[in-house]
Specification:
The protein is an all-alpha fold. Helices cover 86% and strands 0% of the residues. Helix 1 packs antiparallel against helix 2. 0% of the residues are buried.
Amino acid sequence: MNDEPVTTPPAELLPVQIERLDSRLKQIEKIAETVESIAENGFEAATKYLESKAEKERKEAEAADAQHQREIEFQDKLHKRSVAVLSLIVFAVFTLVVIAMIMGQFELVKIILGSTLAVAGGAGIAGIFKGNSK
């Protein structure tokens, strides 16, 4: 075993060592409380950050959906307007052709149909090259 004799400190040093040990224990407890407080605050801050991030993403998604819906509505109105204009033009050409046929002006019918075809072809070709620009 150990051949060294066990030495006991003198009696006057024991209270000093006990006081020192007690103060160290208090410091360790204070450090532990501080670490616990910091950990709780860090967890709360992380939770708040994640909640605000989720809320921000939700609002951005709602804004994107609203923008997309407005775009769809705009395209729908534009399409309806185009169909209405095209219908009026077709009706006007048909009316002119019928009136010219009733009057017996077959050359006028040829001119009307030829001009209509030329204008429609020119507009169609321009529309193809122009495309749907945004």
